[in-house]
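Page 47, continued from p. 46.
Same chain as before, 140 aa.
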Amino acid sequence: MINTIKQSVVISLLFLVNCFSQNVEKIEIKGNTHFITTKINYPITGTYLFEGAKEPIMQLNPNGTGIYQLTDLTKQSIVWGMECLENGTPKYQKGFNYATYSLWYKTEGDDQEWTYAHFSIHFQKKKMFIMGERVKEYQE
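Result:
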């Protein structure tokens, strides 16, 4: 009976660790190691647009893939993530009513370097910005 209880506890702990663990990817940028995740406790996935426009878009999918559409409207498949610590804790700077993060992306399937994009969340406006120009509204 004690062995059964121990097994149940171990299985439960493994389940909880798996459920709450961050999906962290190790990347190399110009010889330096960085870590990225797709989860930062805000609803960052979705479509980002220039205000008042339908295109070009930047689409961030929950699985770390997406689309980056250039101003000439050509679309590129990308992989992306927000910079974090090795344990998945997001790296960010918090201001009075905003927070800034480092978004890293690269063209999917290529050996291209990772590209940095400034990502900000403006809490009072309930908006998120990529590179200060593509925006998505959110609700908490």
